[in-house]
């Protein structure tokens, strides 16, 4: 299944409109290129509708949101909905400030998202309308474990039902679900959390995958999550004793660039739960 | 010829004012440093005239333009003209939105540029006032080939005559011309298009070269284009099977850092056409 | 002494709020992660007070300041003061424009900083209210040498007394002082100046160190400066003939990631003067 998803990204090379933060934007652009898609970043209210119109998909990330760009997100999201383009929401740090929470809830209300991707604390905040987010990392108390996984799954499926979006909760174990089906994904490496923006990169990657596979939102999101996690594993094996998080960042993007559909198919560790 | 151009950059170490996008800005700064010049980024309307005044050259890139920074571009450009500083325009994605097209045309009208650098679709849009740009990459239909090269050359020379600027059209074959003379440059590697911002980097590099060689705008632009292309070749030879676009990005900047005038002279592949 | 400082960063993993420029922000985030702390970037006036409240320390960098973010810096700084959080000021390019000078002086007036870190030209400008800054690099005439070091020390201690902040003047020789005690630090490598943002990175690192060691502002600032300089040395030894400033950038962050307290203790070259 995943094999085809990556093949389609490389063959169709969808153009992805990103309204994202200035911290990890360069890595997001290079990740989109690495998987075979093409990025464009544009956030001015006067051009976002037009830019979205020439693209195949839209990725909205609230990482360094501000009053100017929030309005741009709404305009672009509505235009993408009108054109039936897939739209990803990455609610970075939602719950860490009232502005982030209100913005994310406003976006949820005004835009139909195809996929919502965040860590467990962010998704909980979105679903409950207030949260326990500490900064941009997941709160330890929220961690998905073998013990609470079924509880998290039913909560995520409920949220999927409410929003009509595929929900991707990423962490040590990743969960991707729609309202009926959930996949658990076991790829990845804990050192990925020592790099800024692996979550943002995954959201940009997800936008690329679902734009090339619009009829398979759930499966292509699983493919994107597996690609990122597997790249994290491949890159980790490549580390020498002198390498740290900066080289690891580069190696992960390199691994996505070099990933073949066959490699993805064979290296992915996921199952329906 | 090119040997001297690079020598001058390293000896004079010109300070370059960049008003550029937030996607590739870090790479632009490191490329300016790699070639021996010094970067400063500043985009507030209240300071751009002063910043330009202490610099030797100005690089304007509309990659993630917004209402606030467009005005800053105009102010800085006019001040640079007043001081007879060289100014580069990189019309990223012009034609992809009305805002980009109108902004680029406004900049062309209000500022005398020394060099305008873009892909063929961007330059066509600028020259014709409307275009076929798809995102930030050149439209395939616009591609410069052995068959249409003379047509493109006469169009580019015409545009140079109209604007008074050296025109640099970069792609598989690069063309650099003023109204009378055109150089074709054959350096580079196709994998460079898998990295975000090699175009932006080249514009920042060009600003560095022309600022150190203000009496040789055409030749120093050729030198900058050759430096970037040759760095792309050297970096490509260095790639191991596990390397991808992220490592390639670093290796290109590394190659610029290590490039000697002799190496540039010997590795450049260009001719008057 | 320094051993404990780094241990505390790794153990406490303080969350650091950064209001910084879009040029080097990604490297700042990765450096904060590399040393064991956690970064969050947020610059909208509506959220900076809340974001600072959930953090342990604040890092203010005026690298690409604009009217919108200047106000955010003031709000965040006042909130941090109210909560007794350590605050770092990095007055990038102060003296290069009236806006930068006025902003830095305004920040100094309204916020009590814990540490002010800059090159000698920037610190002189701050102390004197006007300056000789050429761009973002130190003016050669200002260079700290064996001959003028005692003069610089008494000037820096005077400025520390006036501001109540630890002063860190970084260059070939680094000086870190409060009003009574000065340390000179001899770590580092001249090639570090060929990378954009090593100064910004050091400020983010300093915010991490002082936030984990709030009762030892002077000593933890020395530890941060030694960490950065030692990482520059370790990374330089790792360079191959093909490596340049881009790889060096990655290797420095890698070296911070891998630095052990013992390595820092043994590799640091500093003395009270």
Automatic annotation (TrEMBL), chains A, B, C:
The keyword ATP-binding applies. The keyword Iron-sulfur does not apply. InterPro entries: Hyethyz_kinase, Ribokinase-like. It catalyses: 5-(2-hydroxyethyl)-4-methylthiazole + ATP = 4-methyl-5-(2-phosphooxyethyl)-thiazole + ADP + H(+). Substrate binds at residues 41, 197. CDD domains: THZ_kinase (cd01170). Gene3D superfamilies: 3.40.1190.20. ATP binds at residues 117, 170. Its cofactor is Mg(2+). Pfam families: HK (PF02110). Pathway: Cofactor biosynthesis; thiamine diphosphate biosynthesis; 4-methyl-5-(2-phosphoethyl)-thiazole from 5-(2-hydroxyethyl)-4-methylthiazole: step 1/1. One of its GO terms (molecular function) is ATP binding. Keywords: ATP-binding, Kinase, Magnesium, Metal-binding, Nucleotide-binding, Thiamine biosynthesis, Transferase. It is an enzyme of class 2 (transferase). It comes from the Bacteria. Its EC number is 2.7.1.50. GO terms for biological process: thiamine biosynthetic process; thiamine diphosphate biosynthetic process. Catalyzes the phosphorylation of the hydroxyl group of 4-methyl-5-beta-hydroxyethylthiazole (THZ). Belongs to the Thz kinase family. HAMAP family: Thz_kinase. This is Hydroxyethylthiazole kinase. It comes from Faecalibacillus intestinalis. The lineage of its organism: Bacteria, Bacillati, Bacillota, Erysipelotrichia, Erysipelotrichales. The gene is thiM.
